[in-house]
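Re: that chain you flagged

S.,

Sorry for the slow reply, it's been a week of failed gels. I finally had a moment to sit down with the sequence you sent. For the record, here it is as I used it:
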Amino acid sequence: MRIILDTDKKTITVPWNYTDKLAAMNRTIKEAMGDDAKELDFKQYLDDCWKYAMEHSDTQLKTAQKPVKPEKKG
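Prediction finished late last night. Pasting the structure tokens below so you have them in one place:
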């Protein structure tokens, strides 16, 4: 699932079906671990992903490739 952090606008953009995806993950977790399983919550899931990426920034922090400009015609 792709989540976009915009540091200029200070926004986080999630997919339109983010809530449905979390519900599906929670169902899978509950089926595997039973009723005691910790349920993923809308905000906490993002926070957990961010913390994991920062703790493992040597492998999880990526730099995008420079965009390729189309060739000028004429």
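What I noticed first: The CA atoms of residues 53 and 62 lie 10 Å apart.

Talk soon,
D.
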